[in-house]
Write a structure and sequence with these properties.
279 residues; Immunoglobulin-like; 3 helices; DUF4382 domain-containing protein; DUF4382
Amino acid sequence: MLQNKILSLPLVLFFAVAVFFTACDNSGTGSDGSMGTMTVEMTDAPIDSADAVNVFIERVEVNNAENEEEGWIVLNEPQQSYNLLELTNGATEVIGTKELEPGTYNQIRLILSEGGHSVEVGGEVHDMKVPSGPQTGIKLNIDAEIEPDIEYVLLLDFDASRSVVAAGPPGDAVKYLLKPVIKAKEKAITGNIEGVVDPAEAQPVVYAIDDVDATEPDTLASTIADTTSGDFKIIGLEEGSYDVSIDPRNDDYQSETVEDVSVTIGQSNDLGTVELNQQ
């Protein structure tokens, strides 16, 4: 009997050690130590009153701590200027990607430089200032769930039309502020709307409008159709129904609205050719 107890002792110790290491493996990585990946893409809702909107991004960071002043992890340090008006019509730019421990990351922030931001209007370039941008960054709530061996793609829709603000008293030289308006969405749970506007010379701006509440419609995304082909693509739309409004910048043509356009996750709804009538 005593011999059986002595022989069983190593087995008990083995299980005790196994339980100890299992309990200690709470680092957030997968059971095999695998990591997940977060990739951040940027796109833009355009502004038709400017020829360029240049934004200088120093760092892209995410946070997984309850205390938002701690736990910031650098995804990338681009130290680069981006012309937002080149990121329209379905175009995106990767501004950060990094392997991360699995878990929930509740915030992202863009650290913008003190200078280096500009807007070009009518061929003239104006500097833009960012209130408090360099100090605290532009913070967005995301609640991104990072899983082992999975790439999570976050799409940042930088709305240039709402972000560039003319400032200064009337009569003085125009000054501009950059007050970023950005929407963050998980790209995997969005869909797209695309099509062709005929004729392309109408130079239309295409809007996706939330038609759920007709009394207070909300423009959720927009783009400018290609001025040569008339092609357009609006990306990053949540599943649902939208009115697509086509607003020509060429006054010789009339506006057109395509109602009740459905968006399905992971798919692109092709409207085909939308023809505009002359005034």
